């Protein structure tokens, strides 16, 4: 864990309990997840109980308490993707990677995630790998996509 | 003068530190403080390069940089075009800009040639050279890259394409036509003039009156009259008030707000500043989803530029009115679309709604009077001020004024972003604009309003789009997502899909929503697994009514809508699942069975190759068969077989 990042986040948000979510987003952006020691420090510096930090971190879908793999494969299960067959894609990826959503493959290469909509409905069904959106997929193409990473 | 925002010469007295009420007008039509034909000429030259007039020989290529076109490869196009244009020696005549969403997402990446409005579809890097050679040099549009309908007819000009013909783009007028990362283009297109006229010629009460007279209602879903909301907040005595823009577009299938923020962020900012002036607030927040990184980025740039130009901050244009704007990134919670939950989230808490007395207009963010409107609502405000409430009230129906933006997706041919006057029928939207159903399939239903909305069958497609008609049908306007379903979509599975979503997104505060959606989901899962019974249908209806009547916030009171509407309009499909144990659409995995027809199978082995669980066995060139005990019913054999030898039962 890089201490400098934590120090920087603490410096910006110290004593501002209303900035808890922004602080958590900033931490996650750097670490890829929310490490427990960082949450303890943050709770102290912001002046909020650790239970509240944990409550907020588990309430919102964006936050993760476990480290992530090298790449995040995020399957969109929004309505438009659903009606164009995203469930098949999800099952195919789940089978291929052998993990449940939120978990990481044993080799640490991929973390599987699901999202309710990324707003790219016109090219449904969509899978987002890291920051790149891939559309008009089917199970075949989605599996082929993994090989690119 | 590289930008319209720069000083034309040393005589220009304007700077953000020396604000001036003529600033916005002066940028485009000035200078007003001194007279110099050369300064006027420079302005004109800049404007002509951005908005080339017909016959000038100047062209501007607008490349769609919306999320969808971007993902399809548009982000690399501008650079390629610039290089090719330079190589052809045309850099004086043609400029290239990355813009926001042009609307016809299905055909992306899109590019539009101005001023003639030739639209190119499905562009690839390989096509760049042809456009530069044949069109920019030769003067003839490249036929093969134009929009083509089913009959093969091509449409060179955007306004003639059926998708655009029935639309009325007023809120989206600039979206796709200006560089969203340059405030100068927004100002050149008439932006911030509404703000100027508000600050210097209208009292806050007059602004509210104008919005009330226009009949504008909230575009986020519930349709509350905007002017009334503003008035309520203004009336509460307080030294501090807040303006919040709800850009937490959580409905799956909705991307209107994303497109607006990516394509014309200043319109939203201008609407918010006007609201601040009207209600007496000096501080606002845009609560935007973290799932929309591009929208956040463009909004951030827009806010910085508005500050730099003195249009945000202290003493705006010397009017004495100050307004500050912050971005607040959401962290992924559907319930935060609910106003009180959203405010809880800005305050750094879990997004849990509170009881609505007092209303947010009395005690909202940090306990202060707060106006919360959504992105599209704010984007309508400058238009109403500039063109007048009467102009706005003339569009639409008796109870629903103006236009509405919809995100069209699902099994419709032309998916994309559309804007139509209120009162347009759903049929016009799906068939005239959307082009009907893909692949010659049959229309089954459309889902409007997201997880809070309902499913509308074919015989109700003549329903006009207005708040009351849709609510009467058990659906709702919602924020504007329309997902079209065809014969291959199972309505029971669709209802299960939505319940799965609302159950997951329920914040857990109240029992009817937390437990009720869970029980409803259990029943729906049972039915889609083929384990349901006819009595489940009445139980579902009963539970749905209870959840609707007793939940705490809008999430719970609307969560049963997809179930109740599908039970009402597609009951036979439910009955098929619970009595025949069959799903005729073939979507419910557990109810599917696949067999190989021996007389049609040639033994090519393609199905055995794609089967993920090796359930298909057979010798080469001899009929194969499926081991049903191993089969996971994924259907990939069915999709891959070219001889129709795999049959779905």
Automatic annotation (TrEMBL), chain A:
Organism lineage string: Bacteria, Bacillati, Bacillota, Clostridia, Thermoanaerobacterales
- Cofactor(s), names only, from the UniProt record: [2Fe-2S] cluster
Q: Which Pfam families match?
A: 2Fe-2S_thioredx
Tell me which family the UniProt entry assigns to this protein: Belongs to the complex I 24 kDa subunit family.
Coiled-coil residue spans: none
Protein name, entry field: NADH dehydrogenase (Ubiquinone) 24 kDa subunit
InterPro entries linked: NADP_DH_HndA-like (IPR028431), NuoE-like (IPR002023), NuoE_dom (IPR042128), NuoE_N (IPR041921), Thioredoxin-like_sf (IPR036249)
Keywords on this record? 2Fe-2S, Iron, Iron-sulfur, Metal-binding
Q: Does the keyword GTP-binding apply?
A: no
Which superkingdom, per the lineage?
Bacteria
Positions of [2Fe-2S] cluster binding? 76, 81, 117, 121
Q: Which CDD domains match?
A: TRX_Fd_NuoE
Instruction: Give the molecular function GO annotations.
Output: 2 iron, 2 sulfur cluster binding; metal ion binding; oxidoreductase activity
State how the cofactor is bound. Answer: Binds 1 [2Fe-2S] cluster.
Native organism is Ammonifex degensii (strain DSM 10501 / KC4)
């Amino acid at each position: 864990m890089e201490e400098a990042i934590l120090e920087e986040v603490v410096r910006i948000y110290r004593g501002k309990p209303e900035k808890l979510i922004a602080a958590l987003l900033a931490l996650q952006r750097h670490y890829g997840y929310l490490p427990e020691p960082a949450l303890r420090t943050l709770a102290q510096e912001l002046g909020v109980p650790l239970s509240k930090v944990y409550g907020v971190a588990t309430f919102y879908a964006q936050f993760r308490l476990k480290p992530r793999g090298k790449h995040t494969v995020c399957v969109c299960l929004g309505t438009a993707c659903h009606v164009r067959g995203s469930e098949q894609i999800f099952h195919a990826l789940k089978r291929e990677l052998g993990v449940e959503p939120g978990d990481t493959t044993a080799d640490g290469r991929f973390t599987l995630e699901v999202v309710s909509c990324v707003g790219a409905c016109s090219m449904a069904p969509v899978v987002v790998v890291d920051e790149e959106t891939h559309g008009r997929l089917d199970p075949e193409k989605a599996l082929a996509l993994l090989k690119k990473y | 003068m590289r930008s319209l925002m720069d000083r034309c010469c040393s005589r220009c007295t304007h700077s953000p530190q020396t604000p001036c009420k003529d600033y916005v007008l002066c940028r485009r039509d000035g200078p007003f403080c001194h007279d110099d034909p050369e300064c006027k000429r420079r302005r004109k030259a800049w404007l002509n390069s951005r908005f080339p007039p017909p016959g000038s020989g100047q062209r501007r290529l607008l490349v769609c940089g919306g999320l969808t076109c971007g993902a399809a490869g548009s982000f690399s196009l501008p650079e390629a075009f610039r290089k090719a244009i330079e190589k052809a020696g045309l850099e004086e005549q043609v400029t290239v800009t990355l813009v926001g969403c042009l609307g016809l997402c299905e055909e992306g990446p899109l590019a539009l040639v101005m001023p003639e409005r030739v639209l190119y579809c499905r562009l690839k890097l390989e096509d760049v050279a042809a456009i530069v050679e044949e069109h920019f040099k030769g003067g003839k549009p490249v036929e093969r890259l134009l929009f083509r309908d089913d009959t093969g007819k091509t449409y060179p000009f955007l306004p003639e394409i059926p998708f655009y013909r029935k639309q009325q783009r007023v809120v989206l007028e600039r979206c796709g036509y200006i560089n969203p990362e340059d405030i100068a283009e927004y100002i050149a297109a008439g932006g911030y003039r509404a703000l100027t006229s508000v600050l210097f010629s209208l009292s806050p009460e007059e602004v509210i009156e104008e919005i009330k007279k226009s009949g504008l209602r909230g575009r986020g879903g519930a349709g509350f009259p905007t002017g009334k909301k503003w008035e309520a907040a203004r009336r509460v005595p307080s030294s501090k008030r807040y303006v919040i823009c709800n850009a937490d577009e959580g409905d799956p299938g909705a991307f209107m707000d994303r497109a607006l923020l990516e394509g014309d962020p200043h319109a939203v900012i201008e609407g918010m500043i006007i609201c601040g002036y009207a209600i007496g607030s000096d501080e606002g927040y845009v609560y935007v989803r973290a799932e929309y990184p591009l929208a956040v980025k463009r909004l951030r740039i827009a806010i910085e530029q508005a500050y730099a130009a003195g249009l945000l901050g202290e003493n705006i244009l010397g009017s004495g009115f100050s307004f500050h704007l912050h971005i607040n990134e959401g962290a992924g919670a559907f319930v935060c679309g609910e106003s009180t939950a959203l405010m809880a989230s800005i305050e750094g808490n879990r997004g849990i709604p509170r009881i609505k007395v007092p209303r947010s207009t009395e005690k909202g963010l940090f306990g202060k009077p707060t106006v919360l409107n959504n992105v599209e609502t704010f984007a309508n405000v400058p238009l109403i001020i500039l063109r007048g409430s009467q102009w706005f009230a003339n569009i639409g129906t008796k109870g629903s004024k103006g236009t509405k933006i919809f995100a069209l997706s699902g099994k419709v041919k032309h998916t994309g972003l559309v804007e139509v006057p209120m009162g347009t029928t759903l049929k016009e939207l799906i068939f005239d604009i959307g082009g009907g159903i893909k692949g010659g399939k049959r229309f089954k239903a459309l889902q409007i309003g997201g997880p809070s909305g309902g499913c509308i069958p074919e015989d109700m497609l003549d329903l006009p789009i207005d708040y009351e008609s849709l609510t009467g049908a058990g659906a709702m306007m919602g924020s504007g997502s329309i997902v079209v379903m065809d014969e291959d979509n199972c309505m029971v599975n669709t209802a299960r899909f939505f319940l799965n979503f609302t159950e997951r997104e329920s914040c857990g505060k109240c029992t009817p929503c937390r437990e009720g959606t869970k029980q409803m989901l259990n029943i729906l899962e049972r039915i889609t697994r083929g384990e349901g019974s006819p009595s489940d249908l009445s139980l579902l209806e009963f539970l749905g009514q209870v959840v609707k009547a007793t939940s705490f916030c809008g999430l719970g009171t609307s969560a049963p809508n997809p179930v109740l509407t599908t039970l009402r309009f597609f009951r036979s499909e439910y009955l098929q699942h619970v009595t025949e144990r069959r799903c005729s659409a073939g979507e419910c995995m557990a109810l599917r069975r696949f067999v190989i027809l021996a007389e049609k199978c040639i033994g090519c082995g393609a199905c055995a190759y794609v089967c993920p669980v090796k359930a298909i066995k057979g010798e080469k060139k001899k009929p194969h068969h499926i081991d049903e005990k191993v089969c996971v019913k994924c259907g990939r054999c069915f999709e891959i077989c070219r001889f129709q030898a795999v049959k779905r039962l």
